[in-house]
Amino acid sequence: xxxxxxxxxxxxxxxxxxxxxxxxxxxxxxxxxxxxxxxxxxxxxxxxxxxxxxxxxxxxxxxxxxxxxxxxxxxxxxxxxxxxxxxxxxxxxxxxxxxxxxxxxxxxxxxxxxxxxxxxxxxxxxxxxxxxxxxxxxxxxxxxxxxxxxxxxxxxxxxxxxxxxxxxxxxxxxxxxxxxxxxxxxxxxxxxxxxxxxxxxxxxxxxxxxxxxxxxxxxxxxxxxxxxxxxxx
Amino acid sequence: xxxxxxxxxxxxxxxxxxxxxxxxxxxxxxxxxxxxxxxxxxxxxxxxxxxxxxxxxxxxxxxxxxxxxxxxxxxxxxxxxxxxxxxxxxxxxxxxxxxxxxxxxxxxxxxxxxxxxxxxxxxxxxxxxxxxxxxxxxxxxxxxxxxxxxxxxxxxxxxxxxxxxxxxxxxxxxxxxxxxxxxxxxxxxxxxxxxxxxxxxxxxxxxxxxxxxxxxxxxxxxxxxxxxxxxxxxxxxxxxxxxxxxxxxxxxxxxxxxxxxxxxxxxxxxxxxxxxxxxxxxxxxxxxxxxxxxxxxxxxxxxxxxxxxxxxxxxxxxxxxxxxxxxxxxxxxxxxxxxxxxxxxxxxxxxx
Lengths: 233, 352
Fold this sequence. Notes:
By secondary structure, chain A is mainly alpha-helical. Chain A is 65% helix and 0% strand.
């Protein structure tokens, strides 16, 4: 979950200086910063944050492939955010009921996640139910990213659930699907009928098998840290 | 300041159009009231009468200030994806986010003078309005992020703190908020450089190199020497500007020299030395030709900065159009709803 947050935070930060309007520079930076905070909180439970972020290679990262997908146009960024935020809000809502340290992080993060989800929902509806062009772009984005959503419902690493209540992935999938269908409906968009959970890549990211752009993202993210072994920043 | 003319209902273009009529007679009661308010250090507010030239100067200055905030996001955002630790990365994202926020405050302040953000952006994109020359320099290493925080934000604060008392209320209030956040950024930049300076030899060299490259451009941020500053005298008379360019530059140099010593870094000026008689540091000559070149658009990154801004705007156009179309549709729906409500209301009345 730390890797999911770190990688999506990084992708959103790539928007800074390129967003469609000033308000979105702020919103995307804000979401990126929240996710980075979540990543750091999860990493703190597992060890040294910088060692985890900067000194692992592609095959050691456990994030879902959805979050590493390149930003694409604004519609792709929003579709990715919608799929992820709805999932994260539901999952954290469940985990927050526990008593251990993961529950603590989830409880804090779930409030931020509600804001991220609201932002993504509003834009999904604006773009889907905006102009003809924005409708087409939003539908294309939803279609293109749909196959990466199945992975969200693969069983999580046992450690996440050790101290939390049981989060049923089947139930999560059903609730997620309901909420996504509602938003896409309001946005006058079609729910894709292509593969999701059954896509052959579902679950690959959690096993350290990523998509090609991810390696380049890490190369950029880690280069400076790796160029100065042992340095303190 | 109390309005001396009937307050216009808005601050939009209409409010601006009403001005010239009064402007033609500069010794009107309105002009005298304005002069008295400025002399008494009172605040001018959006609905108050003000001379056209005062309004135009403020629009120019606030717009340029806002543009600087958003163009200024670029050299720093250039390093977000390569920040060497998660802590530094979080600080940098927060800083760039603050800059977008400052841009928003400042465009809002400019809008109280009867211009729209769209117009101002158009002027930025077409090169008719400027932004601070400093952002036309490239960020080549991570240490540049620290040098920008320490020197560039430091120079900005020196320039901007007096603006918190500027005569135009909305601008002064925006500056109060902005200066607080800028001071925070400046300390973070200093602390970043300190970590590098005390780090490995390679990190120390990186910090020194960045300071060498950013020192002179930072001194240029205070603008041309007093003798050549075309807007200064009038701006000072209007209490928009409180100190001359050279005064502020001197203040900045005096602050920076001991800070550089504390950092364990040197400033790239062989003529920099304490002048007992003046009680200030003397510094070497500034390359004003370089300054003029950068202002004319021939600095190292002018073309790149403007092109990125134009591209973001161009490529975001479909998103803004979608938002506008959606908002219009929602408004139409609401109106229909209200119409139906009224229809039902009338129906009930008739039935009764």
